[in-house]
């Protein structure tokens, strides 16, 4: 729960520090500008709030690892929700309005996460998870998107080291294998999720695991 709060607080602070011109720059999400990514974070935050107040009375069907749908095929951008996010982001017109909306709903997410009982079973997308597992899964989401935010903006502060390490650990569990220790947490996350192509040396270090990557998470 604490790692969720740290990763989310750092991401909110990074967005709050953006300059207006930054919103028109590309992000690390293919086809999305920074403004589109920030709009996606608003939608994500709303989903977290909804889930934390949607208790389930059945046993958990997923955990932080199995929460993720893993694909070997990259997203095409044709998903209706992706298209909606781009249009919605453009509708804000002024970056300060998008910042305000994210800060507003994002602050509520932080409070809700701190108040949540880790053992509470919650429901989302026809899945049931313990709240602790659900929030742990989102450490990976926030950390990857923090890297996406900074992809073409060198002045953006990096995610906290503990969030990078936690996200890597979860991604290794999803992959079913450890990444080479020679890869930093940041590079492991970027390479394993297809955000960066591995160098020849990195591919050699990955060995047979290289053929299983990248993993696209949905």
Task: Give an overview in words.
It is a single chain. By secondary structure, the protein is mostly helical. The protein is 54% helix and 6% strand. The protein has eight helices and four strands; from the N terminus they run ααβααββααααβ. The protein has helices spanning 2-16, 34-52, 80-91, 95-115, 131-150, 161-175, 185-192, 200-206, and strands spanning 70-71, 121-124, 127-130, 216-217. The chain has a two-stranded antiparallel sheet. A hairpin with a 2-residue loop joins strand 2 and strand 3 (127-130). Helix 6 (161-175) packs across helix 7 (185-192). The longest helix is centred in the middle third of the chain and has 21 residues, at 95-115. The radius of gyration is 17 Å and the shape is globular. The model has no long low-confidence stretch (mean pLDDT 95).
Terminal Cα span: 22 Å
Question: Helical residue percent?
Answer: 40-55%
Give the overall shape: globular
Structural class by helix and strand composition: mainly alpha
Q: Which ranges are low-confidence, i.e. pLDDT below 50, for 5 or more consecutive residues? A: none
Pattern of helices and strands: HHEHHEEHHHHE
Give the total of beta strands.
4
Largest sheet: number of strands, sense, barrel closure: 2 strands, antiparallel
Strand content: 5-15%
Oligomer: single chain
- Tally of alpha and pi helices: 8
Using only CA atoms, what is the Rg?
17 Å
**Mean pLDDT figure:** 95
Lateral strand order in the biggest sheet: 1-4
């Amino acid at each position: 729960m604490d790692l969720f709060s740290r990763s989310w607080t750092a991401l909110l602070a990074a967005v709050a520090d953006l300059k207006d011109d930054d919103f028109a720059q590309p992000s690390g999400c293919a086809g999305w500008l920074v403004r589109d990514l920030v709009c996606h974070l608003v939608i994500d935050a709303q989903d977290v709030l909804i889930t934390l107040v949607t208790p389930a009375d059945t046993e958990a069907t997923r955990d932080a690892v199995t929460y993720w749908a893993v694909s070997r095929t990259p997203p095409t951008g044709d998903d209706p929700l992706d298209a909606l996010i781009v249009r919605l982001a453009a509708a804000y017109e002024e970056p300060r309005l998008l910042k305000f909306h994210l800060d507003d709903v994002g602050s509520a997410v932080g409070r809700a996460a701190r108040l949540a009982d880790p053992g509470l079973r919650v429901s989302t997308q026809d899945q049931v998870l313990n709240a602790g597992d659900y929030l742990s899964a989102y450490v990976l989401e926030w950390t990857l998107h923090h890297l996406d935010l900074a992809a073409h903006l060198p002045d953006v502060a990096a995610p906290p080291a503990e969030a990078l390490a936690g996200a890597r650990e979860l991604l290794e569990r999803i992959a079913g294998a450890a990444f080479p220790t020679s890869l930093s947490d940041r590079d492991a996350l970027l390479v394993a999720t297809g955000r960066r192509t591995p160098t020849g040396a990195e591919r050699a270090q990955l060995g047979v695991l290289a053929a299983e990557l990248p993993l696209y998470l949905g």
